[in-house]
Amino acid sequence: MAAPFRYEAAPVAGVFLVSGFVAGTDDRAVAIEDEAGLADAIAAAVLAVDRRLAGDEFRFLRVRLDLSLAELSALFGIAEEKLGRWERDEAAIAGSADRLLRALYVERTQGRAAVQHIAKSLARGYDAPRRPYWFQRGDGVWRAVPADD
Q: Is 91 exposed, middle or buried (0-12, 13-18, 19+ CB in 10 A)?
């Protein structure tokens, strides 16, 4: 087996290819087979790491979600500048943001949007005053109902 090819143009550091590429004469890949599939595989590997994401990994998932820093900032309720520092590895990524970004990515790739819906709802009304919860029982089941304010 040939030595692995260090994929310098990868969206995250430390990516090596064992196959699926055509090597050039100057130790650079000339062509990579199924680049979209490779990006999916890189994302799956990043999601599976059992440590806090590195900045380039966090940025990679954000970009794959097609979210700008401003959009992610609004979604997470975190200043854009802080997100930028995380992505540049100038500050440690908050554990809650790491987990939420991973959850958003997983749900987006699996075709569901529950986490993103909750995050967007919180972003819209996060500082709204607390309201009472009203419940009604019918057909043997309790249900939340709109409160009469």
A: middle
User: In Å, how far are 39, 98, 109 from 36, measured between CA atoms?
Assistant: 5, 23, 13
Determine whether 58 is exposed, middle or buried from the number of CB atoms within 10 Å of its CB (0-12, 13-18, 19+): buried
Asked if 37 and 20 touch (Cβ cutoff 8 Å), the reply is no
Tokens 């440590």 identify what position?
51
Tell me the pTM.
0.75
Distance CA 58, CA 46 (A): 9
CA distances 101 to 47, 117, 125, 143, Å, are 10, 13, 20, 31
Of 128, 25, 120, residue with least CA distance to 74: 120
* 99 residue type, one letter: R
The span from the CA of 146 to the CA of 149, in Å, is 9
**What residue segments make up the domains of the chain, in order of their start?**
34-125
CATH 1.10.260.40 matches 34-125: yes
Q: pLDDT of 125-137, one tens digit each?
A: 556 665 666 666 7
